[in-house]
Amino acid sequence: MLNVVLVEPEIPNNTGNIGRLCVGTESRLHLIHPFGFVINDKNLKRSGLDYWVHLDVSEYQNVEEWIAQIPDHSRVFLMSSHSEKSYLENEFQDGDWLVFGKESVGLSKEFMARFENHLTIPMSPLIRSFNIANSVAFVVGEAKRQIGFKKV
Prior knowledge:
Order of helices and strands: EHEHEHEEHEH
Structural class: alpha/beta
Distance between the termini: 14 Å
Radius of gyration: 14 Å
Shape: globular
Number of strands: 6
Number of helices: 5
């Protein structure tokens, strides 16, 4: 199972869409506070539809609480438009942690310094970044392609 981590998500619709993606790909969603919305926000539920009840989701009050329960820090991959290595060059494994920052600013330099594996999604120089829900879909899709996805 892949672990999708959202650090301080700000937009409920994005989090709802990512939650739905996690249900569909049998991935676990990890949400690190503070959020830019209330977890029962109607937009979150609208974009997550009725799939939210099937979501394997964990919430953490802060980054330290989340980091404390990671068994292998070498399998944590931070996504950043400032990274050099493409996610397409990475070899993913079952159980990997795919970490995405908040929509407005991404992951802080301090957060990035805590882990070694930094990946980016190749994109045209005409844009600064992709929407976070699209970014998660790109990376989860590639990781699932590599490790396999069994239809239930």
